[in-house]
Amino acid sequence: MKVRYIDPGVEQMMESIMGFQSEGEADFWTGALYHFYPQIDREHALSLPFPERKSYIESTMREVYAEVSPQIGRKAELYNRHWDECEAQIAGALSDAFDVDCAGGYNDIVARVGLNPISPRFLRERAFDVFYLNSEKGALGMSIHEIIHFVWFDVWHSLFGDSFEEYERPSLKWILSEMVVESVMSDPRLSSINPYFPRESGGCIYPYFFDMEAGGAPILDTLDEMYKNEDIRSFMRDSYAYCLEHEREIRGHIERAEASYA
Predict the structure, then answer these.
(1) From the centroid of its chain, how far is CA 15?
(2) At a CB cut-off of 8 Å and minimum separation 6, what does 109 contact?
(3) Cβ atoms of residues 112 and 127 within 8 Å
(4) Of the candidates 108, 15, 107, which has an alpha carbon nearest to the alpha carbon of residue 57?
(5) How far apart are CA 185 and CA 193, in angstroms?
């Protein structure tokens, strides 16, 4: 299980950033950029038509990249060294969790160290973004989260044979994949090297899942109980059936939570 941390260049970073700045996007997704880069005038940006806003944001962020690109290169080297130290135990934990050989596979993963404070993953490309302001421990924790998605959806696809397009936000399959990360991460081999675990340390999943209920019970508790008592393929079937049964509650909670960030 090899991960190679790289500086992907400014063009990829601009594409990644603007993927979360589209018209109608909730502040939950757009707001992080303004938080970490106060040099972007939020009021001014939001007052502009989208094409002009895009131009303004990209122009500002290109200046940021020119200033911090040496730091990004140094961070990539640091992240690579720390990954190498922890690779074996991560591969072992995920192999056990998903009943597949992760140690002998997943040797082409690319982690794009960049400016986007949100870290999207790209399943088909075996790539994900890592925010350059992370420490090496923080980058490792984020990386484990994203790699769990890669393995989860490979096993899921072999089970259901559905389309990879169904695995992206805002599908219910994407929502489920984000929730189950906490249960997978509870393996001591993973939790011990993730500074965002447990919840009291910030959490390794979106915070709006923590107080989500379905059928009168905390949804994460229900999923965790399933995960602990079923093999991974049975868990995938049963957890998805459970989410389908409670989809209205799940989506309603997420909509309210994302709107509350505005």
Answers:
(1) 17
(2) 1, 2, 3, 4, 126, 127, 128, 147, 150
(3) yes
(4) 15
(5) 10
> What one-character DSSP code corresponds to residue 203?
-
User: CA 26, CA 34: separation in Å to the nearest integer?
Assistant: 13
Domain borders along the chain are 3-259
Global pTM? 0.95
Closest CA to 88 of 73, 103, 72: 103
55-114 pLDDT, tens per residue? 999 999 999 999 999 999 999 999 999 999 999 999 999 999 999 999 988 999 999 999
pLDDT digits (tens, 9 = 90+) for 119-159: 999 999 999 999 999 999 999 999 999 999 999 999 999 99
Contact between 220 and 212 (Cβ < 8 Å):
yes
- Measure the CA–CA gap between 12 and 29, rounded to whole angstroms: 18
Query: What residues are paired with 18 via a beta bridge?
Result: none
